Amino acid sequence: MAASKVLLTDLSSGISHVPLNYVRPVSDRPNLLNVQSPEQSIPIIDLQDLNGPNHSKIVKEIGQACQHDGFFQVKNHGIPERMIKDMLRVSKEFFKLPERERLKIYSTDPSKTVRLSTSFNVKTETVANWRDFLRLHCYPLEDYVHEWPSNPPPFREDAAQYCTNVRGLVLRLLEAISESLGLQSDYIDKALHKHAQHMAINYYPPCPQPELTYGLPVHTDPNVITILLQDDIPGLQVLRNGKWVAINPTLNTFIVNIGDQIEVLSNGRYKSVLHRAVVNHNKDRISIPTFYCPSPDAVIKPAEELVDKEHPALYKSYTYSEYYTKFWNLGLATEKCLDMFRVSTT
Ligand code: OGA
Ligand code: NI
Hints:
Elements: H1 8-11, E1 44-46, H2 55-68, E2 71-75, H3 81-95, H4 99-103, E3 114-118, E4 132-139, H5 141-144, H6 155-180, H7 187-191, E5 196-204, E6 216-219, E7 225-230, E8 236-240, E9 243-246, E10 254-258, H8 260-265, E11 275-277, E12 285-293, E13 299-300, E14 318-319, H9 320-330
Parallel strand pairs: 1-2
Antiparallel strand pairs: 2-10, 3-4, 4-5, 5-12, 6-11, 7-10, 7-12, 8-9, 8-11, 13-14
Helix pairs in contact: 2-6, 3-6
Bound molecules: N-oxalylglycine and nickel (II) ion.
Residues 219, 221, 275 line the site of nickel (II) ion (NI).
């Protein structure tokens, strides 16, 4: 009997049809011809002067984007081009390593702080996703870096530099977002308690029938804020005014999106928006989301300053670990996890 492949990267090479367990029901396929052109895309915000004389103008732009779009791109973010290139290169190299080398860190256990896996939650899902991923805990760096892959040899160094720099960008954005809500600039920083940072390196192999399956089906991100780096292959789509819009890659920009926790902290003023990743016929694609999170014990609730008679609290108070457990168990099902934490209005 042929050994069954656990990773899609190895299973998918040279096949001409998508295996049945990846095929979505007809009502739940990407409908790739019905995607809006990139002109409808998300705002681009130039962060060059965030700490200069244009500070309040840029804070306002960020606030508007969080309120109306939930997604924006940032340029002049201060992360050197070289670090971005190195991160993408070493990620590609990782997924080209021999199968036996990659499988050393394969795990389906979400509590592992370093793991390679496939799809989303293979233990519970009924249809698989066209994706392999390496997931790493990144903050505090010194607690985790020694567990990261040491092959390819530059991996730890390149990924550590990248994570540290992305964290710096996140902290600047969280200050700006706090201010844009009329809160103290360290409000969100404090609300996250000790903070946590996770990174996924998503690898989407070429797909013989991209119209039948997803890289990642529609979801919102359960964390605070996500900073997405993608290579030059399109795949991310965002729901805007009821329509799917492709967010095409732009060199040296990051895509930023508000996660569920900012929706709660802002008492619904800022939106955690639905998005998905589709796959394509000829090219493999890498995307690298940094998920910035509260520490598991942080108690999350709407900011008191944003709750009054006209704006009653829309969400309950909970710990982030309660939230994440629900999210993981729902398994990217169509329900929004956030709905389970709403204050009931009846
Ligand atoms: C995610 C995600 C999009 C992409 O990992 O949460 O939305 O383009 N990824 O890979
Ligand atoms: Ni996402």
